[in-house]
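User:
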Amino acid sequence: MAVSDPFHLAIQVHDIEEARRFYGEFLGCPEGRSSDSWVDFDLYGHQFVCHLNTELAKQGVAQHKNPVDGHGVPVPHFGVVLEMNAWQALADRLKAEGVSFEIEPYVRFKGEPGEQATMFFFDPSGNALEFKAFKDRESQLFRK
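Assistant: Predicted structure:
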């Protein structure tokens, strides 16, 4: 999926090779430029960069949880808003791979504006990811 205005996001990881396995091999993000201390990925058309922080293994990524629809949503988090079929295929693949979800795939805000399918899980460095989808993304993404 190409986007007209891709975002750029850089995160910290404690191991570059582990990030390559997780984002590149496991999630299927094509790799771009890299060095010994960072690697670019194409995350659904967005420029996503993992930067090495060797101290991260000692301190871990700081997490906070906000209550949303009866769940503790990890903050900070990032991810992609997918088409519903792509979201379901990813959720099915992650379940089959035995991913440990922070919030299992489900539909939140059922019957309300902004109804969405969502799931949360962590990368090996403790970064929280959310992948979500709407039945009608264009009309629901920012609906109040």
